[in-house]
Write a structure and sequence with these properties.
Number of domains of chain A: 1
Mean pLDDT of chain B: 89
Number of strands of chain B: 12
Largest interface: A-B, 26 and 24 residues
Number of strands of chain A: 11
Distance between the termini of chain B: 31 Å
Structural class of chain B: alpha+beta
Shape of chain B: elongated
CATH class of chain A: Alpha Beta
Radius of gyration of chain B: 29 Å
Oligomer: heterodimer
Strand content of chain A: 25-35%
């Protein structure tokens, strides 16, 4: 269950209260997020939509501990991350967050296997344990037979699958997806969304996703709109109704 | 080490750049080692000089001589144990390119003063009894393939009209000191005396003294110079190391020259490698940001950059040192005695490697710190 009014008493997996983010640009202060509240439970799949510059990526960065808010708090699985030091936050990210980027951001000189193995290098797992985890993650995304391919030898959709495998290999608390299909054709985008749905439905993952694409957003359980720095719960819209709207 | 793959993969991503950077390290290390060897060759005379030996020369300069009669007066000064005299002979063996130092020696005192240069007793005995006798250093004999009993002709134009002096090689000397000179050729004072023009007869080039104690050096040197002050042949007495240093300086300030070239090499290498690392890091900004996003700490990122730069330094350094090991003996063999022997010691090799690693760390430090300070959000926005 996703709520944006800050009224929830329940212990949500992700709990955001009074989140503010202000940037200074050329002496001018720009308030991107204004007292934002959010509660996300385990297993939720949330899509954030909004026009460019509405603060979607900023929100994702704050939730992923990549940026610090100007005010407010973010609590994930009982840990408040807003006051963590830089090094603590780095450790926290390694344990709790899986990132999926629009441009895949794979290391081009490493194979798919080696890219997926990266987060595990920070753990104390043995070489054979790491191998088991990596092979499992690559099997989940359907790339077990491409593990020794370099990114340049894979299609865009396959590269994004490797990114997803890298995001899930350490079994993080939640996944953050920034325009995961933004660089893909419709067919590949559908496949990636099917995979993310499978991660939520079959493996119980919590996913927070930023997208411009209503078709992609329609695959989420909840779509939230960012408007003038505040989250507004969108109407529940099925993929079919979005498609019908688009056709009309 | 589990990060090995990541470091090596990044290192080999631009192979031509890697080859060029490693190549610049190789050349720089070779140059560094070669310069250090040359510097060592020129300063070795100073390092190996006997602490208890003094050299007396004509105050005007080394090419001016002194009367042989000074010998007895020098020996009377308390603290002087032995005194031997030398002259520069300056002959040519077959070709002018075949340079080697030739000294007219005093057979009575040479071995008492130059104790580290050893000649077997039987060979020395033959030499002393042979007016045309000669002793060659082991290195010199090896260079020309001489053996005891050979007849050595030297052409000389320094003492009267050009003529050929014939010598019998009666012995080979060795030097007890590691890296000590084994390139000299000694000939008999009596043979020299008989064959030079009258104006030169009885004139010696310099004296070498053995003291009772090194502590006497200052007092004895002062006493000698005072004894011959205001005479036709005033003297300048100095320790053997000061004499060797002064002799080396006649070729110019070698130390300064080599230090200057070495510094230029160091800073050029630093800039080349630093620039390469900076470009390499800039190209990978988004990758570094992703590493940080997925949990690699700032220190890890710094470690990666330094590790890459150190591996480049290590490979380039080892190649440069390997080149030096192969090339320096070959260069030395072709110098034809124009320079002291070029010796590449294990200590110098160690220093070379340390130099390479130092440059590796320093050149990787600034790009590494920049990578460490990279803000993930900003870096990802640049993609």
């Amino acid at each position: 269950m996703v709520r944006v009014d800050g009224s929830s008493d329940a212990q949500s997996l992700i709990r955001v209260r009074g989140l503010n983010k202000t940037y200074s640009r050329g002496g001018e202060k720009i308030q991107v997020l204004q007292g934002l509240n959010l509660d996300v439970d385990k297993g939720d799949f949330v899509a954030f939509m909004g026009p460019s510059g509405s603060g979607k990526t900023t929100l994702l960065n704050l939730l992923g501990g990549l940026d610090v808010p100007s005010a407010g708090s973010i609590t994930v699985a009982g840990d408040e991350i807003t006051h963590m030091s830089g090094s603590k936050l780095t450790q926290w990210r390694a344990r709790h967050v899986g990132f999926i980027f629009q441009m895949y951001n794979l290391i081009p000189v490493l194979t798919a296997y080696q890219n997926v193995e990266l987060p595990l290098l920070l753990t104390k797992l043995s070489g054979s344990d790491r191998r088991k985890h990596v092979e499992t993650a690559l099997a989940v995304v359907g790339l077990a037979d491409r593990m020794h391919h370099y990114p340049r030898q894979l299609s865009g959709g396959q590269e994004q699958r490797v990114t997803i495998a890298r995001a899930i290999v350490s079994d993080p608390t939640f996944l953050l997806c920034d325009e995961p299909t933004g660089d893909l054709d419709r067919k590949s985008a559908d496949e990636i969304m099917a995979l993310i749905e499978e991660l939520v439905g079959k493996y119980g993952k919590t996913v927070l996703m930023v997208t411009h694409d209503p078709l992609v957003a329609a695959r989420a359980h909840t779509t939230l709109h960012l408007d003038k720095g505040v989250l507004v719960e969108g109407k529940a819209s099925s993929r079919e109704s979005v498609l019908a709207g688009g056709a009309a | 080490m589990k990060f090995r793959k990541l470091i090596l993969a990044n290192l080999f991503r631009k192979k031509i750049r890697l080859i060029l950077t490693v190549g610049s390290f190789t050349v720089a290390l070779f140059l560094f080692t070669f310069l250090a060897v040359v510097r060592g060759a020129f300063s070795r005379g100073t390092e190996l000089a006997g602490a208890d030996r003094l050299v007396v020369i004509n105050r005007i300069g080394l090419i001016n001589s002194m009367p042989i009669a000074y010998g007895d007066r020098i020996r009377q000064i308390p603290g002087v144990k032995f005194a031997t005299h030398n002259n520069w002979f300056g002959g040519v063996y077959q070709d002018e390119k075949n340079f080697f130092p030739q000294f007219v020696i005093d057979p009575e005192n040479q071995r008492q003063v130059m104790t580290e240069m050893r000649v077997p007793d039987d060979q020395w005995k033959t030499f002393v009894g042979d007016r045309q006798g000669a002793i060659a250093g082991r290195g010199l004999a090896k260079r020309f393939g001489w053996k005891v009993g050979d007849r050595i002709p030297l052409q000389n134009a320094l003492y009267g009209p050009t003529k050929t002096w014939e010598f019998n090689l009666d012995g080979i000397y060795t030097n007890d000191k590691e890296g000590g000179d084994e390139s000299q050729f000694w000939l008999q004072w009596d043979y020299f005396y008989e064959n030079v023009p009258d104006v030169i007869k009885g004139q010696v080039g310099w004296w070498v003294l053995k003291l009772d104690s090194p502590d006497d050096a200052v007092r004895v040197g002062k006493a000698i110079d005072e004894k011959f002050a205001n005479s036709s042949y005033e003297t300048k007495t100095e320790t053997e190391s000061a004499f060797a240093a002064g002799f080396a300086k006649q070729l110019g300030n070698i130390q300064l020259l080599i230090t200057t070239i070495g510094s230029v090499v160091f800073f050029t290498l630093l800039l080349v490698t630093g620039n390469t690392m900076a470009i390499s890091i800039r190209e990978r900004t988004s990758e570094l940001a992703v590493l940080k996003a997925i949990g690699f700490s700032d220190r890890f990122v710094l470690f990666f950059v330094l590790a890459e730069s150190l591996v480049i330094a290590l490979i380039g350094g080892l190649l440069g040192l390997g080149l030096a090991i192969l090339a320096i003996p070959a260069v030395g063999a072709n110098l034809n005695g124009l320079m002291p022997p070029l010796l590449l010691s294990p200590i110098l090799l160690g220093l070379g490697l340390a130099f390479a690693l130092f440059v590796g760390v320093v050149s990787g430090l600034l790009p590494g710190i920049a990578a460490m300070r990279l803000r993930v959000v900003n870096a990802l926005r640049r993609v």
